[in-house]
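Example 9 (inverse folding). The structure is encoded as follows.
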């Protein structure tokens, strides 16, 4: 594949790198963020955890997307600031989302990238219209998709463990030093944190809707 064919994925990765590396008026955490009734659901997770798939499903089911990639926490107010952009989906997730939501607009599908086949689901009208509307952090969910999981499990995570996991998923916690510690401490004090392990997306959606 020629370099030009991969222009869009490379551009997306470059933009994410710029935000993570230079927007230090925010604490930046690698996480999907969605909102309902003014409250934000934050889902930090490593690649392969099903984060973006779950994020896309929640958006299609009426949650407002703030970001599928980056949770931006205002250092002064503690508000979660939207970073609205298309949801990046990869490989099998593309096929699944297209079958579950035929009306969803998935654009610029590119095969052969370093991450496999990549495509982008456009944000919902609700997400675009609220792109400047902040939210208050309320829940942190650490999702993990496991095809062998026979039964969904949702377990409480302590504030101390949530703090450490969020710090490990932050792009600039160490750069911000004391500001990062204060911001992350304030965030963990106002949220309930859980670990979600699942194989069935419908069960995960049902559980999150009940919890949040």
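The amino acid assigned to each position is listed next.
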């Amino acid at each position: 594949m020629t370099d030009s064919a991969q222009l869009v994925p490379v551009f997306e990765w470059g933009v994410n790198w710029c935000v993570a590396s230079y927007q230090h008026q925010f604490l930046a955490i690698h996480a999907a963020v969605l909102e309902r009734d003014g409250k934000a659901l934050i889902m930090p997770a490593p690649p392969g955890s099903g984060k973006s798939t779950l994020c896309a499903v929640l958006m299609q089911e009426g949650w407002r997307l703030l970001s599928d990639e980056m949770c931006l926490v205002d250092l002064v107010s503690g508000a979660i600031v939207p970073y609205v952009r298309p949801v990046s989906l990869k490989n099998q997730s593309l096929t699944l989302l297209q079958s579950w939501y035929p009306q969803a607009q998935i654009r610029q599908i590119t095969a052969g990238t370093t991450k496999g086949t990549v495509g982008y689901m456009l944000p919902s009208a609700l997400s675009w219209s609220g792109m400047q509307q902040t939210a208050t952090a309320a829940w942190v969910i650490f999702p993990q998709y496991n095809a062998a999981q026979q039964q969904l499990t949702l377990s409480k995570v302590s504030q101390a463990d949530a703090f450490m996991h969020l710090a490990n998923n932050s792009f600039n916690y160490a750069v911000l030093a004391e500001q990062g510690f204060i911001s992350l401490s304030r965030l963990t004090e106002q949220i309930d944190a859980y670990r979600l392990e699942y194989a069935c997306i419908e069960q995960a959606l049902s559980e999150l809707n009940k919890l949040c």
